[in-house]
Amino acid sequence: MRAALTRYRVIAYVVGVVLIVLVVIGMPLKYLADNPVVVETVGPAHGFLYMVYLVAVFDLGRRARWPLGRMVLVMLAGTVPFVSFYAERVVTRWITQGEPARV
How far is CA 103 from CA 63, 80, 90, 93, in A? Predict the structure, then answer.
C-alpha cells in the first residue's frame, strides 16, 4: 500500500500544479491576451495526467478498501485548483493513521 500511496501523492501534486498553470496562466492569456499557446500545450497534458491521477486513486482506493463515495470525492479533487493538494494531505493522513474507510 505504501507504493500506491507514493504514486498517488506524486501524481496529485503534478496534476495540481498543471491545473494551476492552466487556470492561472493559460486561461487569462487565452481570453485576455488572445494567446492560446499555454492552453493548447498544457490542456492536453493535464487531460492525460488527470487520467493517470484517476488510475492512481482507484488503485489506492481499492487497496485501502474505500467505499465508492470516498473514491469519487478524491477523484473529483483533481478537477478544482488547489483542492488536489488538500486531498493529498487528507488521504495521506487516512492511510498512515489507518483511519477506517468512511465517506
Answer: 16, 19, 13, 15
Provide the whole-model pTM. Answer: 0.89
Greatest CA span in the chain, whole angstroms?
Answer: 49
User: What's 33's DSSP letter?
Assistant: S
Residues 37-53 have a mean pLDDT of 96
Cβ burial 47-58 (10 Å sphere, 16+ → b, else e): eebbeebbebbb
Per-residue confidence at 99, pLDDT binned at 50, 70, 90?
Answer: low
pLDDT at 103: 46
**Buried residues in 7-41 as b, exposed as e (16+ CB within 10 A):** bbbebbebbbebbebbbeebeeebeeeeeeebbee
Question: What integer best gives the mean pLDDT of the chain?
Answer: 93
Place of cell 489507518: 98
